[in-house]
Design a protein that fits this description.
alpha/beta, 5-stranded mixed beta sheet, 33% strand, 168 residues, globular, Purple Acid Phosphatase, chain A, domain 2
Length: 168
């Protein structure tokens, strides 16, 4: 099973997302979605599990949970924006969700893919929407197969210098 991982779209769904996610079976969105239409567009690709983030309005907060738990291909996955932890880090998230095998979060806009305690995969796909912190816009892909540790990768959507806040 292939999972598309996205966060921090802030109302901007780049066309590159459709290409990167074209063969995914499920999408998880780590919050700060923007208007609900972003989720509707993602749902044209694959089923979506999403959480609200600190900048999401009342409509999404009424529709989405702060933390989502799901099981895909036998893996327990937790999705959270992470703002409830200040600046979230993998160890804090693993301590908060000790039963999760995969934790997806957003908020920091900084792409991250790491292991905690050798068995917990933690991914922040980075910010997929408007650029921040001179980082490329990015998403993630997780490959799940029962009995095999998850495989993941971060996928830049823009070059490092494209549409950068400091670009001329």
């Amino acid at each position: 099973m292939r999972i598309g991982v996205i966060a921090d779209t802030h109302g901007l769904l780049r066309p590159e997302v459709f290409e990167v996610f074209r063969q995914v079976d499920h999408i998880v969105h780590g919050g700060d979605v923007g208007p609900p239409a972003i989720l509707e567009k993602l749902e044209t690709i694959a089923p979506v599990t999403a959480v609200y983030g600190n900048t999401d309005g009342r409509e999404l907060r009424n529709r989405l949970p702060r933390v989502a738990r799901l099981e895909l291909d036998g893996f327990t996955i937790v999705v959270t924006h992470g703002d409830q932890f200040g600046t979230p880090d993998p160890d804090t998230l693993q301590a908060a969700f000790p039963d999760a095998e995969i934790i997806v979060f957003g908020h920091t806009h900084r792409p991250l893919l790491t292991l905690v305690d050798v068995v917990v995969t933690v991914m922040n796909p980075g910010g997929a929407g408007p650029r921040r912190f001179d980082l490329p816009a990015s998403v993630g892909i997780l490959e799940l197969e029962p009995g095999i540790p998850p495989r993941g990768r971060l996928v830049p959507l823009t070059p490092l210098d494209a549409d950068s806040p400091s670009s001329p």
